[in-house]
Amino acid sequence: MQILTIQNKPFDQPIYVTRPILPSLDRITEKLREIWDSKWLTNNGPQHCLLENQLKNILKVPYLSLFNNGTIALIIACQSLRLTGEVITTPFTFPATPHVLTWNNIKPIFCDIDPVTMNIDADKIESMITPQTSAILGVHVYGTPCDVVKIQEIADKYGLKVIYDAAHAFGVEIDGMGIGNFGDISMMSFHATKLFHTVEGGALIFKESNLKTRIDFLKNFGIKNEEEVVMPGINGKMNEIQAAIGLVVLDYIEDERNKRKVLVDTYKECLKDVPGIKLLPKDKIFSKSYQYFVIRIEEEMFGRSRNYVYQKLKEYNVFTRKYFSPLCSNYPCYKQLPSASITNLPVANIVAQQVLSLPLYGDLTPDEIEKICSILLEIK
Ligand code: T4K
User: Fold this and answer.
1) Atom 29 in ligand 1: residue holding the nearest Cα
2) What's phi and psi for 221, nearest 5 deg?
3) What is the extent of the structural domain holding 298?
4) Does any domain span residue 307?
5) Which residue of 99, 103, 106, 154 is 20 to 30 Å from 73, comparing CA positions?
6) Mean pLDDT, the chain, as a whole number?
7) What's the whole-model pTM score?
8) Which residue's CA is the nearest one to ligand 1's atom 37?
9) pLDDT 10s digits, 216-266
10) Same domain, 126 and 51
11) Are 361 and 269 within one domain?
């Protein structure tokens, strides 16, 4: 057994990067009974319709389509806009983002990221456009919005579509407008690890009514009616149990957000003056989704590398995550692309060595956050 020469004792129970909202089983059973009584388990049932309407209001968007997960939703977003050729995107994201392009036979073109927001650097997009470019696929990383104004200007100038991977951005707004009102389509993930979840699930959100018809055909095999199949669709439907769980989880969101806010404030207070630890800079851009609490460890100043800290924290029963390292551009399936070269992505390659997502979920207490911070200092 390893002997730890440390002051802080490891946590008795593992502390993970996140934990899902778990509503009371009674509330879930109540909902399951409704579903059983209706004998309607999937295919646009009553729970599904209810959730779709509620989310439209909460997210302040005109149109929304539910999906069985965020990745299938994003694949269908590309299909619905008939994207081809090349799409400019970020390497600093979850594998799903570039993979949906590949599944659509589109080449991802990696653009470097902004050193502050860690989102696609809008100033570098224009130089990556070629005659094959059909769209820009930005990611609101950790819920921080991309530079939606500049990206739209570029898209308008070159006649490109804009899709946002808003997997982390539930409830995020810009000047009171739901984040889903920017670009042509945005995708949200409702995976168990997200603030709002339906166990697995996702949604596309958009402003054009004609997209609603097309997207809903695409997620249901292209079926228009019993006699007509109008396009080569797939099965992307959210079922009634997922939708029902989502409806119950919605009641817990505000409380969870408030708890996470207190924890985030505790982290900020404890870590604000630690040399070599960088926080997301301003409240203005700190995500109101409270999806992740991310620090950047600058090895030279902190004295320890991010990888060392990540490993060492495990000895204290703290399981952080390196979202998003390795960069997508360094995966074997993409690293041969010219845009994946380190010289094209200097900022992303540095940031990916620094980021660490610390535990953030409502069941944690401020005392536990203080202890995590104290362990960090001890590791230093
Ligand atoms: N785009 C972006 C930018 C994304 O971040 C994601 C998903 C997508 C697209 C795709 O959306 P979906 O198709 O998933 O809807 C997790 C999630 O599985 C993934 O949805 C999410 N991003 C990603 C950032 O995180 P992993 O591989 O880190 O998950 P996992 O299983 O290691 O879980 C992380 C921690 O969460 C565990 O250590 C403990 C805790 N956990 C997890 C689950 C599943 C629980 O406590 N209970 C649970 O049920 O990817």
Assistant:
1) 193
2) 60, 10
3) 252-379
4) yes
5) 154
6) 95
7) 0.96
8) 16
9) 999 999 999 999 999 999 999 999 999 999 999 999 999 999 999 999 999
10) yes
11) yes
